[in-house]
Each structure stands twice: as structure tokens, then as C-alpha cells.
Amino acid sequence: MYDNIRVCDVEKYYGNDSNVTKAIDRVSFTVERGEFVGVMGASGSGKTTLLNMLATIDRVTAGHIFYGDTDITELKDEKLSDFRKENLGFVFQDYNLLDTLTMEENIVLALTIRKEGKAEIQRKCGEIMRLLGIEEIKNKFPYQVSGGQKQRCACARALVNRPRLLLADEPTGALDSRSAQTLLETFTDMNHSLNATILMVTHDAFSASYCSRILFLKDGRIFHELVRGKKERRVFLNEILDVLSLTGGELSDAR
């Protein structure tokens, strides 16, 4: 079990010699175990690129990313795949649920890939569905439930293997205001009760106000950081809005 994640002088370039785009420019930061960290910035600031490199979906051009003592930038494809399966959980804006499977089957699928025993699969699946309040819809298909319930199912699938890091890319983007609030409260509960480490990319200040710390990106670099500490969420939200108003970031409504 690693205690922290260290991003060290990471750079990411796209394109070729005549037309190079620098998406990430010498970014360094640390995420401690059990932190709930938000990454914010305007469109094109590099936040999703950064998330994808932490998620091992994309490779760095230069620099290193350490999960404890493991440098994931040095791992070969097969080892990287094993690392991803054993350590990371993903929640995306569009859920990525399989329409032909029930909610329970969507969650179970994540466990069968790891070849867990049947009794253990049922125990883990039941536990996570109870925790996220979706046990009563376990036999329904994705088209039969609300967007908020789908997103909680996606969270359950991501968390059922107890990943060391949950990576969320605009997880509230497709949700209405009430469902977004429910999901964010669920993230907070998971963060506290499971000591889950969460890294969430968002352009939405309301969503970001649930985090314990925010990193602000501009032109591929971290230019500012906010720590919530003991502040009320409403106070933290206003601080986030102040930073975004200075940077041309996309302002959300203060729901």
C-alpha cells in the first residue's frame, strides 16, 4: 500500500516537429493517501490530459509519476495493465455502463475480471450497493433508472475492488443539480468512511467545493492552489469562484 502519489516535472507534448502542442508543462505535486483533490482550469488547460497520465491511459513525454516507490512511467504495457486493474478506479461523465446487463451485473463484471469466488463477489457487490443506496435497483437495466442512479452504479463498479485511487473526469457533467449533489456527497462519504483517495477533474466550482484541495491549471501549468482546511463549504466555494474569475475559468452557478 503506497502512502502518496508524486507527480514530478511531468511534460506532455502532442504533434510533430513542425506543429507541437505542449499540453502539460513541468507539473509537480503530491497527493497524500485519503485526500480528495480537485483539478480545475478552463477548456484546454490540460486537466484531462493530466488525469489520463495518472490513470495510465496516456504516457508522459518527460518526467515521472510515482505511486509510492513504483514509477508507472517506467512500466511496460502488461505490467501497466496489471497495475491499473489492481490500483485504480474510474468514474466518467457518460457512465460507461453496459445496457444489456443489470445494474448488479455491471458491478459484478469488475469482480469477475479479477476471478474472485462467487460468494466473495456477492458479498462485495451487496456491500457497495448498500453503501451507495442502489440495492433496490440491482435487477434493473441502465435505461430503467435515473442519471443519478446510473452514476452511483458507475461509482460502485469503480469502488467494488477498493482501488487505492479513484479518478473522476467531470463526473457531474451529465447530472442535474440534485443528482450532482448526491454524487458529491457520496464521494465525500467514501473519502471519509473508506479513506478513499480521490482525484477529480472538473470545471464546476460547486463540484470542486466538496474537495479538500484544489489545483488550478492554466496553459498546462499549476498556477494556484487552494486548501479547504476547516472552512465551511460555502466559504470555500466563494474562494474558488474568486480564483476562476481572475483566470477566465468557466464559472458555474453557485447552486
Describe this structure in words.
36% of the residues lie in helices and 27% in strands. The protein is an alpha/beta fold. The chain has one domain: P-loop containing nucleotide triphosphate hydrolases (Rossmann fold), CATH 3.40.50. The protein has a six-stranded mixed sheet with strand order 6-7-8-3-9-10, sandwiched between helices. A four-stranded antiparallel sheet has the order 2-1-4-5, covered by helices on one side. A hairpin with a 2-residue loop joins β4 and β5 (70-71). α3 crosses α4 and α5 packs parallel to α6 (177-193). The radius of gyration is 18 Å and the shape is globular. The protein starts with a strand and ends in an 8-residue tail after the last helix.
- CATH top level class name: Alpha Beta
Q: Roughly how much helix do the residues carry, as a percent range? A: 25-40%
Q: Radius of gyration, rounded?
A: 18 Å
- CATH H-level homologous superfamily name: P-loop containing nucleotide triphosphate hydrolases
Instruction: Name the average pLDDT.
Output: 88
Order of helices and strands: EEEHEEHEHHHEHEHEEH
CATH topology: Rossmann fold
Number of domains: 1
The largest sheet is: 6 strands, mixed
